[in-house]
Fold this sequence. Notes:
The complex is a heterodimer of chains A (125) and B (301).
Chain A (H helix, E strand, L loop, with lengths): L7 E6 L5 H12 L3 E3 L2 E3 L9 H8 L8 H19 L3 E5 L18 E7 L7
Parallel strand pairs in A: 1-4, 1-5
Antiparallel strand pairs in A: 2-3
Chain B lengths: L3 E5 L2 E5 L16 E5 L11 E2 L3 E3 L3 E6 L3 E6 L3 E6 L5 H19 L3 E10 L2 E6 L6 H10 L4 E3 L2 E6 L5 E4 L4 E5 H7 L6 E4 L2 E7 L9 E13 L5 E5 L2 H9 L5 H4 L4 H14 L1 E8 L5 H14 L1
Parallel strand pairs in B: 2-3, 3-8, 10-17, 17-19
Antiparallel strand pairs in B: 1-2, 4-5, 5-6, 6-7, 7-8, 9-10, 9-11, 9-12, 12-13, 13-17, 14-16, 15-16, 18-19
Helix pairs in contact in B: 2-7, 4-6
Amino acid sequence: MKNNQKNIIWLASYPKSGNTWDRLFLQHILGTYQLLAGIPTLKDIPIASNRKLIDNYLGVDSADLTPQEIRNLRPAVYIKLSRMVGELQLLKVHDIFGKTSNGQSLFPAEVTRHVIYIVRNPLDV
Amino acid sequence: MTHFYYSIFGLSIASPMLIPELDTSKTDKVDVHILLSSAPDHLDHSISSGVLFESNRTEFLLKLPKIGKFYVTNGDQVIIDPKPEAHQQEISLFLLGSVFGAVLYQRGFLPLHGSAVDVNGKALMILGNSAAGKSTLAASLNQVGFPLISDDISAISLLDNSTSVIHRGIPFVKLWKDTLNILYPNAEYTRIRPQIMKYLVPVNGDTNLPPEIELSVIINLTTHNYSEFKTAEVTGAQKFIVLRDHAYRDQLIQGMGLMENHFLMLTKLANQIELFHVQRPSIPLGIEALRDLVINEIIVG
Lengths: 125, 301
């Protein structure tokens, strides 16, 4: 996959909207559902704000960074992730579509293929 | 140039810069030389890279905006190229974190993301993701008499097929303000960085601890959304998965050509240790209840 290919699909929702359920059936459709030692895992669709994911792509512990520094580095994390995974990547996200202090979108358009916005019928909760 | 000599992870360090977090140590042989000099902007042959780092088999470069660059080569040299505005404690923080993580990988150690205490001459290591409560549990065990071996990074060496040891790390725990207020009320400690409400807390009672301690029990500490604590022994292939998932900055390994050896070490370690999964309520932290559970069900039990 080329460096500039758009390969992230954001699963955007408020918490408790059925995001995990959607992730499970999407994983089954995509064939990425795994059983690790008999235990089902949702590893393949992480949440975008996952600390371990962010720490790994940064190379430092985000607990040693200020909230402002983390926010400013997050777009670069998703660009790096997009290039390294090289294939379609679903990421769950609860965050607002915000910007860094430099005016960069938190979720860069250059790596975004689609956004799926999951809304639960409030009468059904 | 004046040098300060330190010992950490079984390595003797010579540094032109004071590292107040470490114990001074006199030595004839230096394993890792720290230099204050200019570091490259990029590696010539980067195999793996993250947002802030680049690495290959023998080099690791970490670039932190407003703090500086750290360039590690061959596991025996660290060049620090600080920015003028960087604070000393910020340099130490990242030096003793990811930078020494790279030194450990380059020297063939197995660094895991965990803290460890000594229990009657054997090491009990606490693994967990960030904010799981590793440092808090280690500090609270330390308060009731278990000497701290390491916090955040645990450097492991496999002596043979049946024994692994953990090397003494930094004699400090890093605690957030809320935990500090519970465990060390009224105490004044230094922040890890001026802007962050996380503190460096020196720990007591470990002066007689040997430099390396046999690793026997590992706890995987996680949180859940229930009100009770749970413990369960982890067995079989799942032990390997837990250890693999807690390699310290495992993204670094890919560029270092260490994958094969790394997995071999994880497999051997999984066969040598007892592993327990401890789940705690995400809120409240319940420090005393967690500590008592670990003492009663794992240390004594």
